[in-house]
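Sequence in, structure out. First:
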Amino acid sequence: MNIQQPKIDTSPKVSDEIRKTTCYMCACRCGINVHMKDGKVAYIEGNRDHPVNKGVLCAKGSAGIMQVNAPSRLKAPMKRVGPRGSGEFEEISWDEALDMAVGLLKPIREKDPKKLAFFTGRDQSQSFTGFWAQNFGTPNFAAHGGFCSVNMAAGGIYTMGGAFWEFGQPDWDRTKLFMLFGVAEDHDSNPIKIGIGKVKGRGGKIIGVNPIRSGYNAVADEWVGITPGTDGLFILAMVHELFRAGKLDLEYLSRFTNAPVLIDAETGLLMRDDAGKELVIDRRTGKLVAFDQKGILPDLAANHEGNRTVFQLMAEKYLDPQYAPDAVAERCGISADRIRKITSELARVAFDEAFELDQSWTDFRGDTHDKMVGRPVSFHSMRGVSAHSNGFQTCRALHLLQIILGTVEVPGGFRFKPPYPKPVSAHPKPHGKVTCNAALDGPHLGFVHGPDDLMLNGDGSPIRLDKAFTWENPMSSHGLMHMVISNAHAGDPYKIDTLFMYMANMSWNSSMNSGGVMEMLTEKDENGDYVIPNIIYSDAYSSEMVAYADLILPDTTYLERHDCISLLDRPICEAEAAADAIRWPVIEPDRDVRGFQTTLVHLANRLGMPGFVNEDGSAKYEDYADYIVNHERKPGIGPLAGFRGKGGDKVGRGEVNPDQLDKYIENGGFYVEHIPEGADFYKPWNSAYQDWAVGMGIYDKPEPYLFSLYSEPMRKFQRAAEGHGDRQPPEHLRERVKATMDPLPIWYAPFEDSHVDTDEFTVHALTQRPMAMYHSWGTQNAWLRQIHGRNPLYIPTKIWEANGFEDGDWAKVSSAHGSITVPVAHMAALNESTVWTWNAIGKRKGAWALENDAPEATKGFLLNHLIHELLPPKGDGLRWANSDPITGQAAWFDLRVKIEKSAAPAECDPAFPPIKSPVGQGPKELTWKVGK
């Protein structure tokens, strides 16, 4: 019997052309192939030749096509014509928009540059935006890091010259035991997924430490459901056990860390010679010598005229019974036996399964080693441990743990990615000298070495609006973006004229106290003028923040502009190679929009800003692409390291190549330069790596250094609080500085615990980002909304049963700041005193071109309404920031709440009235045809 087979085209024409660029749907910076038909995007796949993702692409990356076609895209520059917050705008030309911006900015630059507060969100071009702000002359610049993960970055750099994620990665090919702390699924997701697959594929073990078992923790071989804010206590209990058992890499500690460095018994500062080099006792001779002398064996147990070593202080501190597993178990929510078991497993794999690579190398002392010792234990951590008021010390504790095991920059352990590692001394210090109509005296952000580097006026008042680098948060390397609007509104430390922001949804999901921030942005003074006089905002989409601006400078989507993922900023490097990348306009905008960086170039040209104009006043750069190619931060060093020199044959250092961008496009949008064999481990101390890094332009000269288990900058601040030196903290901060800025990692309870009644607010509340979303722009994506269109509050079994919850129920959740009413769902794999939800799912009605009854606007919500940028008042009349006292990191995850069953309302509460959308609502069905 004949059967008629259907006629199917098994080889349809997929595309006319493939254009290769870099994804922007999260911060992974994966390589993508953009398939084109008739000049339009047909679909997006991963680039198999790309060093980051090797062809792997997640749901976000594939859904990039829906971002490019999103109905919420802004269409043209706009000026506000209704009350601020109403969303009523009038479209204007770019010339009019730039004239308006210059009209606001020029008088500020001429009379008082600090009256401009310029802060950017997740823009991935901070070397450029910082350069712009520096040349404008304002001290008030930073990006999102202060409310994201500055504790992680600064904690790592101050301790060992780099941190996790963009700074380094596990040795995925050799590690046997991989331990994660506080990692959600949004950061570095494709490389981590690939790496976890490798570890599991060869029988390795993964331990996930997180109150919530989702994402990476769901596939971990062992899940540790820790109580939020106690990670540092758990880590130091493991350090205690390792010291007690003598399971320490003593040779590693003596050679590569400041553990053998002597501490002056009187000052607590490191002992140094006349050249400023740290002093150790050589075990071979018993003599006092500089740490970097050839042939020495630094003595960890030395004692010189009553001055002991860092190692001896560490042993004394961490062998204290307060850190014993039995002493911390109840607080951490982890049994003492389990703490001991995990510690034993770390030690067993690190030491009993150690291995060697048959590779010789020469260290910074000039000593040659025949082998490279591998310790197959690696760690990774992110925002979960960072976003607490004790997060800086917790991050340092985690680095202490991996260092005493000898697992940093060795085979099988954690490895730095170029341009890291860098000692603190290789980074700039912060600058804040303001001169009218001139550039700032140096970079805004950096790393302080002691009280002398604080950004304070002669009277002790803050130079910066966000109070970064003050006694309130001395080591705030990324600034405090979450305090900018609150401080500007309060006029504390001073009033500003113009708030200029880019891609920072501060009136909604990127602010604590979202409702309060909306009021701050719209409040008027007794004269009827807005308290924050002028707001300029740039975004690609009609976000919640758009309604609060006076002038909108519309950005493009990521496939319509140039971007530079640079070694000067946040490159795409891997542990084996330096790598950077670009984005380029694979399609042209169909709207009257411009890439924000190009808009900044145009503003700089009109303002005559140094760095952007020649001596005759003519423009140095036509647009951002021109800047990327022709700008040199130092002679021969520019934003891109690849294809330098007139022939494109130089890397790292070289003359400007006018065809550089074309070379990157031909190469798939990226450039990779591999580290030579033998230079790829022990980077901080390996002479071959140091020489290679100098040739690449990463260093100007070799920069070997010791890991700082004992932080001398912190001891300098602590000494000032004890009454030493000319610059001392105000009295109300003196005890806090002494207590929190211990030069050895410590743990203290999160600050909210002492500001609220923990007998009333017994529950910890967290948010985390899902793997299929990234910040707020993902939840307007037509494909991704089908994965996460609403977000319940997930409740553990103990709290669920105690409140008699059932499926479909709602709860009132209250904090010391406010309350929300939200849908709940049961989750068993959750710390028993913790509730959580996905972040940035909830939307305000009228934003993002969504309908007013969209699930994101009615069943989606934010925990932000329960969190305040300030801690509850202490009765002393002072404003205490809800931040880490050392770095100013926003303490999102210290939140304490109480929960009670509630009648189901029609929609989540609070429900704000709709805002008028400048782009209207999108169609019921988002469809279009690409090609014939």
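Second:
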Amino acid sequence: MQSATQEDQLELEAIRDFKKGYVYFLTSLQTLVASFLQFLTAGSISEQNKRDLLPYRKALDQELNKSQKQIKDIIFNLDEKHMYPMVKKEYSRYFQGGYADGPRTEFVQFNLIFEMLRNFAMESKESWLEIRKSITSGTFHDPVFRDDSILNFRIIPALEKIDQLSILLKRMAYVLDIENYKSVLETRNTKPKFRENLQYKLSSVFTENLYQENLVANTEYAGPLPGLDVDESIISMRSAKKEQSAEPKPAAKIDKKPQDGIINFIQAYGKYSWNSDQHYFFRFEIEKYVSEKAYFNQTISMDTHLGADEQMLRSELIKSLSSIKRKNKTSEEYETEYLTFLTNFFDFIENIIIMNLGIPNQLKWVFLFHIGPSHFYMIAKKFLMEVNTGYLHVQSLDGKKVTRIIPGEVVKKHVVDYWNKVILPNVGEEKNNLALLKRITEVVAEKYKEASARAMAEYEKLPAEVKSSKRIDELFRENMNHWMGAANIIVFKRFVKNKSI
């Protein structure tokens, strides 16, 4: 590999903060802007300096507040629960033939992030340069205050941050194969081009000698080199045959994939920030789901009980393995039976949770809504494993081995479907009632206190030699699921430990 050119070394050094992620850089810029705002309103500035600053205060306040809002919005959109729906929505602008996870999704996301950062840089740089020009040429009775407190400690560092962002955008534009990538801040329209085997990740911009065709790879892509994370390697093909525009292509040229049309996420949001956070968002991986769905083709038996005697289950399993039952059931029948079991099982665990926690019946649906699909899945998975049910008995292709599997992505998809079909239709405007949420939280918190007291009592019952063998926190970690109930702990963490409620 060639050593990095001087230009490349300088650029890589300038954007080193981005190695910790977009949000790390944006947060540092946000802190700089916030400290500038705080400085302007602080009582430590002399009256004379305040009067000298007055002609520039309006422009400064407007730019600082605008920057704060823009950075906050970008950080908000970078969160997966917000970025993922944006990618789904924008996907059809770039590709036809239906949405599918993979390199094209990464391309759309990478370009969306590029455009968000580019718009911010274009607007901010012009404003900050104008402010610097005005203050530099302005009249200040205390030039040290102007040069150090305003320019050197605040305005120039902000401009340096924006310059670092501009370098990142230049390198992102090159990865996106945008023409005139060196002047991306000088034009409103950009036309990215998609290349099949290029990884569209932040790590791409850190490739040494990026502009010297360093993205070229072998014509066959076999994945990242051993020992490297996927996000640390970049493998691309720049041959003309592989290069293609990201503009929509005729549908006839794209093969329709079987997973097209599957909605693999749910945003069960309310009206407010407190019921629109990560607890109300949930997704599953389409490729994993399709892979797990294929297990039904090799399934010879299933555990679909709601908590039966272990010995009886073993007896039934032996019978099913030695029978011709499989020949009389299609994969579709097994799948239908399994999904029906999941629906019944979800209803079963709902009733157990509500009974254990003492949730009033009239609050059942709003309580389940606020648990959220993500925590509900965790509870369901925990119950499945504790009750020893929900397993598929999957026979290997050679017929020599049978493996018990809980198809996690199938369960996740059913949670999404269950939320759409059962939970959401049964909860109305009460989901936006903060008083009801606080009431639910109080009920759960009271049960948490009771469960904690029981757990402490169980700890006290332990033999002295057990207590002396380990620290108390270690013993609690080992026994907590048994003492407090694994599913209950998940609910406690959702409500009692949640600082946003």
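Remark: Residues 216-260, 308-327 have pLDDT under 50 and may be disordered.
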